[in-house]
Every structure is written in structure tokens, then in C-alpha cells.
Amino acid sequence: MPCCFIQSKCWSSCRRDYPFLANIPTDSWLPCVRNGGIYALPMPRPVSSGPTFTRLDLLRKKDLDPDPKTWREFFQLCKDATDPDAHQYALGDPTTTWNLLMQMMGAPNWWREENGRFTHYYETEECGQALDAGLQLTKAGVMHPDAFSVVGKFKDWFGNGQIVMHPDGPAAWNDFCTVYGPVAKHLDIGYQMPPDWDASTPAGQWQGRANYATLIIKKAPEARIKQILRAVNALAAPFGTDGYLLRKYGVRGPGHTLEGTDPILTPQGTAEVTLPTGFATDSPFTLYYPPKPEIVPVQYAFQKEAVKKLVPNPAEALYSATDSEMSKLFGLGFESLRKGVMQGRNSRGEWDDAVREWRKEAGDKMRAEYELAWETRY
What we know:
The chain is of the alpha+beta class.
């Protein structure tokens, strides 16, 4: 972790004054570094990203194999798992479903770098194939009927059994058990790796962003910067410390009780620890879930399997001013168009036209900026 929040401080004094921040993994700090100095704080996340979560309890009821090996097997599983009469469908979120299809094809994780030259995943052949595969899923009736019109309900659908597969982040695993375990009878959550597209096209697991976002500290007098750093250092207290226990479980008694050495949140504690302090910074990700410890070996098995197939985003630690300024604007348009193509409302030709416009207005400039940043750094 380079240190230049305060330019006069050296690395050893930073490590001494802010040891919990120094404990955050290097990968999480990389997007915070500009011109040899740190100008932001990371919210660390595991690079394994998350799996496609599966409702094993529901799949077992139909005697279905939850671990397909190819796209063809996955497509059949989706059809077999769908039961409209029971209001049960294979998938719900069109965006994460498209991401999963891209990973099946071994597509780039946002950008692909080859000999210093960058290609965005919008431009790839795999992107078009994923759109076609998404349309096949929609036509087969395996997507939730409200998938393209409702936002923010996908976790609920998975928790209450309306969908049986849901790609999501690694932190969602514990959340599903906490929120839906008490109400979903026999809830049993497993994981699925992206199946290979076919025998000649192996899948990849998109490496997750090493941090969820960055927190920029506004320019201020040195005393104020130190004060803020002390506060966020406390928020980064690692697993096993008193600071971690207080932040994640509250005060013993009203916030949590102990079962052996494991803290168990009370209803009051569950409500109180939802304060969004984790969106300032956080400790390194930990596999730990006292209410249901048997899920931790399964989570670990996923992590071990995922890291063997990781596809990194080569632009994650680089900066493009054009990407920062224009990606959100274009992203909303592509999101809507992607859903339209997957539904059959829009054509592949419209998608191709949108990609050409994106290249003209922003994409080619992003590419040039990333290639220059890559050359400068590496």
C-alpha cells in the first residue's frame, strides 16, 4: 500500500498509524492509486467474485443435476426447473444472466488486453452469441415473467423460491441465509460455476472487482485528514478484533449473544448493524457464518474452484477519463437495448449500430486512454 494521503509520511509510519488500512489486500488499493500516490480508500471485495447461487432444495425435489457442464445441459436444466403452475422459474435477472452467458463463452471481463491492445466486450463475437442465447432462454419461458420489467426483486425471488438460480456477489450467500433462512422451509443454497459453452470453448469465471467502490477524501487540513484516516482505519478492523466484533455485531447483550465463542445477532443487532459503514471501507472479506457454520466449507470450495478459472479485467487498476465521464450514460442505453434484444423487441442490427455509435462517441477514446495507461504502468 503506497501512502500519500499525507505526502510527508513514509510507508512505515502509515503502517504504524493505520495498520488496519495497511491490512487491506494490495489488489483493492490499485484502483485508488494515481501518479504514484493514493487518493482514495477501497471497499475491499474478494477477487473470486460470486457464483450462480442455486436452490438445491428445489432442484432436488425435481431430481435435477444442479451442476451442468455445457450450455446445452444448462439450457435443459433451465427448462426442467421451470414450473409456471408453481410460479417457479429458472432465472430472474437479465443482466446477471447475460454476464453468466458471456462467462460460459470465455468472453473478456469488460476489456481484453493482447500485447497492449484493448478490446471491449461490447465489440466481441461472444457478446452477440450471448444475446442470442439470452433470447433462447426468454423464448423457452425459463425467465421470470417480470424479469424485464421489475428491478431489485431478484434476491426476493430467489429467497422465496420463484427462481432457482441467481448469479450474485459472494456476500449474498450469508445474506440469503440470514434473511430467507427463517422463512424458507428447508432452504439449501449451493453454487454453480459457469458451464463450458461446448467441448471446444471453456468457460471462465470473471474476476470480481477487488473493491466495490472508492471513497475519495476531500482536500482538507492535515489534522482533518488524519482524523478521517483514524476513523476509517477503525472501520477496517480485521476479523478477530474487538473493533470488528463491535462493527459487525454491536454491543454484547442488546446487539448479540454468544453461542460458545460465536456471536449471534439479536433482532436489535440485526437492525443496527445495517448502517452502511461498509461503504466507507471494510476489512478483508472473511468466510464466517455462526448461525449455519456448515455453509463455510462450501463457500471455501467455491473460492478454490473459482480462482483456477479467473478472467481479470486488465483495465481495473487503470484510469480513463472518458470511461469515467461517459460509461454511465452509455451503460443505461446498452442495458435497455440488451434487454430488448433478449426479449426479441430489438434486433441484433440495432445492437451493432449502438456499438458503432459508442465507439465513435466514447469507446475508441476509452481504448486509447487505457492503452496509454497500460503502456505507462507496465
